[in-house]
Amino acid sequence: MNSGKTSTAIVVTILAIIVVIAIVSIGGSPKVDNKVTSVGDEAVGTSTVLVSETTKVSNTLSEYQNAELGFALKYPSAWEREETNSGVNFVIPIDKNQVSTVATLQANVQVLSSVCAFPPITTIKDRNVLKSGDMTFNTISMSNTVQGREYYNRMYSLQKGGICYMFSFASISLSAASKKLTGSEATQAANNNKAIISSTEVAFTDMVKAFAFKEGPAGKDETKASPSN
């Protein structure tokens, strides 16, 4: 019993570090923003441009902008977006019509006031770089199997001055036995798992390639402001 609890604790720790590594260093709890606005919309009753906004750019992609954290990107519109104090998370829907054991697909973008560093505790599957325009992203992928569950992660990092932009994709696949799949169904599920994760990782990488820095609205020069009576 103690061994099982220890393994479960290790799994939870790995996922917490990989998927939510940035939140601890910055602080603050996630905040859900379900409001979708058009680019350039303004807050009602004021002339202040919204800090973050989303606009539909095609039938399959939406553009997310966060002027406060200084970035914008395009992502599949089907992904469920959740903003946090340090970035944005995406819950990725899984096709339930396919025979598979994929249980979780998620991605996030975190902005850190630090030097970029990948987590050191998981075995690295590969390490490389991704070039997009004049930007160079460092990238690693990691995989692990614990108690029949397969964990896979792809991470990208981009350093700009003292700010690190960290991108993470994670998937969790259950064992065939847990879904009561045997024989040809188990083989089909394994093949579908690879296809689902691979296609989602491609979409995630395309999102990273679409990343762009965004400058927020300029603040008012208080030295030139007239004091109010």
Notable characteristics:
seven-stranded antiparallel sheet; 22% helix; 229 residues; Protein Transport Mog1p, Chain A; 11 strands; alpha+beta; disordered N terminus
Overall description:
This protein is an alpha+beta fold and 229 residues long. The protein has a single domain (2-217), classed as 3-Layer(aba) Sandwich (Protein Transport Mog1p, Chain A), CATH 3.40.1000.10. It is 22% helix and 37% strand. The strands form 2 sheets. It has a 7-stranded antiparallel sheet, with helices on both faces. The protein has a 4-stranded antiparallel sheet with strand order 1-2-3-11. A hairpin with a 2-residue loop joins strand 7 and strand 8 (135-146). The longest helix has 27 residues, at 183-209. The radius of gyration is 20 Å and the shape is elongated. Mean pLDDT is 80; it is low at 1-50.
**CATH level-two architecture:** 3-Layer(aba) Sandwich
Strand content: 35-45%
Q: Which residues form runs of ≥5 with pLDDT under 50?
A: 1-50
Strand order within the widest sheet? 4-5-6-10-9-8-7
Q: Can you tell me the overall shape?
A: elongated
Which value, in Å, is the CA radius of gyration?
Answer: 20 Å
Mean pLDDT over the residues:
80
Taken in chain order, the helices and strands follow as HHEEEEEEEEEEHE
Number of domains: 1
**Quaternary structure type:** single chain
- Portion of residues in helices? 10-25%
Number of strands: 11
